[in-house]
Amino acid sequence: MLIGSHVSISKGLLGAAEEAFSYGANTFMVYTGAPQNTVRKPLEQLKIEEGKKFMSEHSISDIVVHAPYIINLASFKKETYTLAKEFLEKELIRAAAFGSKYIVLHPGAYTEKDLDYGINRIADGLNEVLSKDIPDIYICLETMAGKGTEVGRSFEELQRIIEKVDKANHIGICFDTCHTHDSGYDIINDFDGVLKSFDEIIGLERLKVFHINGSLNKCGAHKDRHANIGADETNPKGADNIGFEAINRIVHHPKTQGRPFILETPWISKTENLYKQEIAMLRGEEK
Ligand code: FE
Ligand code: FE
Ligand code: ZN
Q1: Which of 60, 83, 162, 257 is most buried, by CB atoms within 10 Å?
Q2: Ligand with smallest separation from the Cα of 107
Q3: What is the dihedral of CA 239, 255, 52, 28, to 10 degrees?
C-alpha cells in the first residue's frame, strides 16, 4: 500500500523525502512553495537530485504535487484567470522535475458567475495549458466539498469538465474522503456504491490519487474541515465523523490499490502531527 502525508518543501525535495520517511511513509505530497502564493524558489535550490536518490534508497515513490489554492481556472477576472493558466503551466514543469506524475488541482470557484460558466472556463483553461509542450503528467482534479461556488462537488461536475478537455488523457482525479463525505457521498456505509457511481460517471481508470482525511462535519455539510483519522472528542482538533473503520476499508479496498493515499489531517499543535500514528494504524501495525 502506498501511504504518506503532506510534507514540507521548505528544506527542498530531500527534506520532504526525509520528513516522509520519518513518518514511515512510502509516498508523500508537497506544494512546490507556499500554497497561498506564487513565490517559488528556483529548482536548483530544491535539492532535487538528492531527494530522488533518498527516495529510491528508501522505497518512496509515486509522489504527488498539489497546485496552490490561488490558481482559480473558473475565475471571470482576466488577471486571476491568466495567472492561473501561467502558474499551472509552470507547476507542471516543477512537478515533472520532482519526478511526480500527479499534480492535484482544485478545479476552481465561479464566484459571481454560474456553474456552466465555471465548467466552460475551467475546461478552456485546461485546454490552453495542455496545448503547450507539457510534460508527461496527470492533472488530477480534486473532488470538492461544495462550499461556496466550488466546482467539482459531484462526479457529474468533474466529468462535465473532462468531456470538454481535448487532451483528456492528461486528466486524472484526486478523491478526497473528507470532501466527498462533506459533499454528500455515503463513503461510510456504502463506499462500494460510491465507487460504482464514480466508475459509471467518470471511470475508475481516471482515479489516480486519494486524499485520506476525516471530517469534522456530517455527510452533506459542504464544509471542508479535515479531522484526524478516527479522532474522538479528546482530540484538540475535534472528532472525526467518518471514522477509522470507513477509512480503513477504503485504503484496503481491492479496487483502490496502487494509488497513493495522502493524509492531509490537522496538526495537533505547531510542533506535533499524527501522521506517523495514522500511517501505522492504517497499515494495521497498531491501533
Ligand atoms: Fe486539495
Ligand atoms: Fe484534499
Ligand atoms: Zn479539504
Answers
A1: 60
A2: 1
A3: -10
Residue 133 CA to ligand 1 center (angstroms) comes to 25
* Distance from the alpha carbon of residue 200 to the mean position of ligand 1, in angstroms: 24
Q: How far is the CA of 262 from the centre of ligand 3 (A)?
A: 12
C-alpha of residue 149 to centroid of ligand 2, in Å: 17
Measured in Å, residue 222 CA sits from the centre of ligand 1 at 14
Strand, helix or coil for residue 43: helix
Cα 214 to averaged position of ligand 1 atoms, centre (Å): 14
Residue 241 zone, left/alpha/beta (φ > 0; ψ -120 to 50; rest): alpha
The cell for 57 is: 534508497
Q: Is the pLDDT of residue 239 over 60?
A: yes
129, 134, 137, 139: CA torsion to nearest 10? -10
Q: Quick one: what percent of the chain has pLDDT higher than 70?
A: 99
Q: How do residues 78-125 score in pLDDT, each as one tens digit?
A: 999 999 999 999 999 999 999 999 999 999 999 999 999 999 999 999
Q: How remote is the CA of residue 78 from the centroid of ligand 2, in Å? A: 27
What separation in Å is there between the alpha carbon of 104 and the centre of ligand 1? 7
pLDDT averaged over the chain?
97
Instruction: Look at residues 107, 202, 179, 180 and name the one whose alpha carbon lies nearest to residue 150.
Output: 107
Predicted pLDDT of residue 286: 62
Write b or e for each residue in 229-247: b if 16 or more Cβ atoms lie within 10 A of its Cβ, otherwise e.
bbbeeebebbbbbbbbebb
